[in-house]
UniProtKB/TrEMBL annotation:
GO annotation, cellular component aspect: plasma membrane
Keyword set, alphabetical order: ATP-binding, Hydrolase, Membrane, Nucleotide-binding, Transmembrane, Transmembrane helix, Transport
Molecular function, one GO term: ABC-type transporter activity
Family matches, as SMART domains: AAA
Chain coiled-coil ranges: none
SUPFAM superfamilies noted in UniProt: ABC transporter transmembrane region (SSF90123), P-loop containing nucleoside triphosphate hydrolases (SSF52540)
Protein name: ABC transporter, ATP binding protein
TM regions (residue ranges): 36-57, 91-109, 121-144, 164-184, 244-263, 269-287, 360-378
Domain ABC transmembrane type-1, chain residue ranges per copy: 127-412
Residue intervals of the ABC transporter domain: 450-662
Family annotation (Gene3D superfamilies): ABC transporter type 1, transmembrane domain, P-loop containing nucleotide triphosphate hydrolases
Subcellular location: Cell membrane
Length: 662
């Protein structure tokens, strides 16, 4: 049993470290060394809230006493007496001192709360203030229940109605506080989700991380479905983190306020409840380990299933041309089968856990009757005390059975933590050895230079091109040829800085001076104007300029179909591949780089249009590196790099390159 308990502790501390790594940056700048500062600021906030509650309550009672002393004494005499005892004793001085200490902490470390980091602390403080207020009201209600019960048994009409009035006022007061607490909690969750999503998106799009974490072969990365992690997992994490944290704090408050009351009524009942809750909670946590893993897997399988459906939508025309509905149906149903299979296991384990939950909860119902039966039957306890004890017992039970009630949520929360933290860690470790094949060191240059370079596939040892020596100066054009799979596109990735070379030196023009156009151009989720200007600012060019460029690349029909340049459409579906390739050349003309890399970028065009587009590049003195198989391409280039396929290569002047060799 000892090793198992040790493993549970290790898992718990591991999850807490991951939780802190995800949580703290929203509230404080994150470093490994300032974890204690984060805890200190949380305590400081609690000190500030506790002092604020005491000061507000004291001020409110003073205001009520000055306006109506008799009514205050009649209905709120107990509250007045309690406040008087606090201020007469050391407790009032202690709370005031802690309040001042909390304020001093926030003033001392105010530099940590830049970039609006004070906003979540303020909202969280207000939420905790409301939790304290509601728990204080609940504690008072237990005494009201006792007094009402005794008054009804004694048939004391005046006391019964007076206490019922006070009870109604308590409920009326608690309702808006609780409602505002729910609103602020949802608002804080939304702000946190927005911040965390933006942070993950920025990290994902920084330094081509999105490309490195999504290599050509899925088994080369352990980060599945980044889109789902940024959307669904972020939403679940922030929602569950706040819900669980506030519920834990609420449970602690409930326990703290009610344990003393229940101890004053029956020590035996209090001890029995704590022991019973401890045993049931331990058994439940021990039995729920499998549930945590199943929830983690379920998130992944659901994301894979959803991606399969998105894939069909994005490739609907290609699938229709192939009549591939049956094959696509099999694949989607396979993914659905994985979801269903895992969910079946999840249902079984959830049912087992719920049996344990229900057993623990049902068993706790008997404890008050078993423990308090003798004192009531012997006359040592009146029925009002028994009723109060039951209310206190139920409140304490709710706080002590917190894990029992929330075990399903904890399992889903654990899965969200694991997936988000794993995603975050992978993005932060891009420069590690694991990703050395992607993190390219390319020196800025006025030309493209490859000196003794080996071209290889990331994560693999197969070298496609060995000891490549190549220099492309401005206004020079190179055609790359060779059999399929010999490494032509891989070479372009090395030149563009997407892949790294483990040997030799690569120099390329700086960002913006080299543009890559693949065979199937990238179409953005935007307007026609944004398609043309990408990745430049869409307001940089006038409408007349954009229309002139479309005319230049032989797309006048596009202007006739969509005269409004700001119209947004599903462009990859509406435009043919030939139209997309011509649109990409228009984008190229607007960007005006010094070098352009064309990976079969004219494969869907006729020879006449291809010639026209290459002449446009020549007029603008753009140097191009082309990959293609058409013999006509030789006419637009100065030299030909022929990749043989066994790692060897040769560089030949285009004028002497024979058409039969192409």
């Amino acid at each position: 049993m000892a090793p198992t308990i040790s493993n549970i502790q290790k898992d718990l501390f591991s999850q807490l470290r991951k939780l802190r790594k995800l949580t703290q940056p929203y509230f404080l700048p994150y470093t490994e060394s300032n974890g204690w500062l984060f805890i200190l600021m949380l305590l400081a906030m609690l000190f500030c809230v506790a002092g604020t509650v005491l000061f507000l309550l004291t001020g409110l009672m003073s205001l009520l006493s000055s306006s109506s002393q008799d009514l205050t004494n009649q209905y709120l005499g107990g509250v007045q007496d309690s406040l008087q005892k606090i201020w007469d004793g050391k407790l009032g001085f202690s709370i005031t001192g802690l309040f001042c200490l909390g304020v001093a902490c926030f003033i001392t470390f105010r530099a940590q709360f830049r970039q609006k980091r004070w906003v979540p602390w303020l909202i969280l403080g207000c939420i905790i203030l409301m939790l304290l207020s509601v728990n204080g009201i609940n504690a008072g209600i237990t005494f009201l229940v006792r007094d009402i019960t005794n008054a009804l048994i004694a048939k004391d009409k005046s006391a019964s109605y007076r206490n019922l009035w006070i009870l109604g006022i308590c409920f009326i007061t608690a309702l808006p506080i609780r409602s505002l607490q729910f609103y602020l909690t949802e608002k804080l969750q939304l702000l946190w989700r927005e911040w965390l999503s933006k942070s993950l998106i920025n990290d994902y799009l920084k330094d081509q991380t999105y490309y490195i974490l999504n290599p050509n072969e899925e088994q080369d990365t352990d980060v599945d479905n980044p889109d789902q992690r940024i959307t669904e997992d972020t939403k679940d994490f922030t929602n569950q983190a706040l819900d669980l944290s506030l519920n834990i704090f609420d449970s602690i408050l409930t326990f703290s306020l009610n344990i003393l009351i229940l101890l004053s009524i029956s020590k035996e009942l209090t001890i029995a409840l704590i022991i019973y809750a401890g045993v049931i909670t331990f058994l439940l946590v021990f039995a729920s380990k499998k549930l945590f893993r199943l929830n983690y897997d379920q998130l992944r399988y659901e994301a894979d299933f959803r991606y399969g459906l998105v894939h069909i939508r994005n490739n609907s025309e290609s699938i229709a041309f192939y009549s591939g509905e049956e094959q696509e149906s099999k694949e989607v149903q396979r993914r659905l089968g994985t979801v269903v299979k895992n969910f079946n296991l999840l249902i079984i384990w959830s049912a087992m856990i719920r049996v344990l939950q229900r057993s623990g909860i049902y068993g706790s119902v008997f404890i008050p009757y078993i423990i308090l039966a003798v004192p009531i039957l012997t006359g040592q306890m009146d029925f009002g005390q028994f009723t109060q004890a039951r209310v206190n017992y139920q409140l304490l039970e709710g706080s002590l059975f917190f894990i029992i009630y929330k075990i399903d949520t904890l399992a889903r929360f654990s899965a969200s933590i694991g997936r988000l933290e794993g995603f975050q860690t992978n993005m932060s470790e891009i420069d590690n050895e694991q990703y050395k094949d992607f993190v390219a060191e390319v020196k800025d240059s006025e030309s493209i230079v490859l000196n003794k370079v080996n071209v290889k596939t990331p994560f693999k040892d197969n070298i496609l091109i060995k000891n490549l020596d190549l220099t492309i100066e401005a206004k020079q054009n190179l055609l790359v040829t060779g059999p399929s799979g010999c490494g032509k596109t891989s070479l372009l990735r090395v030149i563009s800085g997407l892949w790294s070379s483990q040997k030799g030196r690569v120099s390329s023009p700086k960002r913006g001076e080299l543009l890559f156009i693949p065979q199937k151009p990238y179409m953005t989720l935007g307007s026609l104007r944004e398609q043309l200007c990408y990745p430049l600012d869409k307001n940089r060019f006038s409408d007349d300029h954009l229309r002139a460029v479309l005319e230049e690349v032989k797309l006048p029909s596009l202007l006739e179909r969509y005269p409004d340049l700001d119209v947004k459409q599903d462009w990859p579906r509406l435009l043919s591949l030939g139209e997309q390739q011509r649109l990409a050349f228009g984008r190229l003309l607007l960007n005006s780089p010094k070098f352009v890399v064309l990976d079969e970028a004219t494969s869907a065009l006729d020879v006449k249009t291809e010639k026209h587009l290459y002449q446009l590049l020549k007029k603008r003195d753009l140097s191009c590196i082309s990959v293609g198989h058409r013999p006509t391409l030789i006419d637009y280039h100065d030299s030909v790099l022929e990749i043989i396929g066994d790692g060897s290569w040769r560089l030949i002047p285009a004028a002497t390159y024979e058409l039969s060799q192409s």
